[in-house]
Amino acid sequence: MIPAFLCIDVEHDEHAPAIGDRPWEGFASAVELVDRLRGPLAERSGTAPHPTWFFRMDPIVERCFGRLDFAVHRHRDLVEHLSARGDFFGLHVHSLRWDEERGLPYTDYADIDWACRCVTVAADTFEQCFGRRPERFRHGGYFLPEPVVDTMLEAGVVADLTVEPGVAPQYADPSFGAFSTAPSTDFSAFPRRPYRPSRSDVGRPAVDDEDARPLVMIPLTSYDYGKVLDGFARGLAKRLLGRPRGPLPLNLWKAWPDPRTYWDLVSRAIDESPVPYVSMAIRSDPPESLPAQRVRALLEYLPNHPISKRLEFTDPLVFWPVPPATC
Ligand SMILES: [Zn+2]
């Protein structure tokens, strides 16, 4: 069986939230989707699937929704349901900040102290909610600078699932809110398989135990799909996906030609990886949004694809403290 990590970022419906208490409909919808899939996936693989739910608890949540623990406080029934099902919980953080003058949220990557504060505040809230430190972590908005990694470690994180191999710095992105004060992290040369990061460079595997941070990095599954899809349907894939060069994440929310092709690409990525595993991330987008519809179509198709027999949706901590060796 192949360890598979389905990361679900539990956050407000809009990337750029406004001020006002309202439930996160995308969260309820993601729970429904997962519940519908539990039976068919268990039947195919012989093991009950468990995704990992990464909760947003950073300062912008308090500014817009009135409390840091809004995700858990307002949706207590959903959280208790997931806990009873035996799913795993982690922390998801954005460096969003409220612009008081203009009345909108923006991303402040230029202020590293703010980015670190977002992690600390969110981790403390996580502990208050769940009675333990957040061991599993995903930073939003393609961001993972060294001081944020050190702050994560102080906060108790041992497994990070942020890295999106091949992704160059982004200057504008819906996840940034209105704008960003600086570009995101350059993930283009980051490893494509799990590793323990060097103390001097989170994008490089440690050379030995002494050099290793007490952390396992689990990059999202990536693949050079541009090459494979080159001849697909007379360039349809290129029109849908742009012209990717080199490996990029197989994100479920992208516009893939069709579900079968998508899961074929995932199968290839697994078979060609020195460490067979899958890690994919989605956010709790509202059900009527295009990304949510794409994600739903791909996940609902999964039990029909042969790869579903081999996937065990499990806890990312199976790769902690040491990820499987590569040879
Ligand atoms: Zn996010």
Short descriptors:
TIM Barrel; two-stranded antiparallel sheet; alpha/beta; 327 residues; binds zinc ion; 10 helices; eight-stranded parallel β-sheet; 33% helix
Q: What is the makeup of the main sheet? A: 8 strands, parallel
Mean pLDDT: 95
What count of structural domains?
1
The oligomeric state is: single chain
Q: Tell me the series of helices and strands, N- to C-terminal.
A: EHEHHHEEEHEHEEEHHEHEHE
C-alpha termini separation: 19 Å
Helix content: 25-40%
Ligands bound to this protein structure: zinc ion
The CATH architecture is Alpha-Beta Barrel
- The CATH C-level name is Alpha Beta
Task: Walk me through the structure.
Strands 1, 2, 3, 6, 7, 8, 11 and 12 form an eight-stranded parallel β-sheet that branches. Strands 4-5 form a two-stranded antiparallel sheet. Strand 4 (96-99) and strand 5 (104-107) form a beta hairpin. It has 327 residues and is of the alpha/beta class. The mean pLDDT is 95. It is globular and about 50 Å long. It has ten helices and twelve strands. Helix 5 packs parallel to helix 6 (146-154) and helix 9 crosses helix 10 (290-301). It has a single domain (2-221, 250-319), classed as Glycoside hydrolase/deacetylase (TIM Barrel), CATH 3.20.20.370. Zinc ion binds at residues 9, 11, 92, 94, 140, 175, 283.
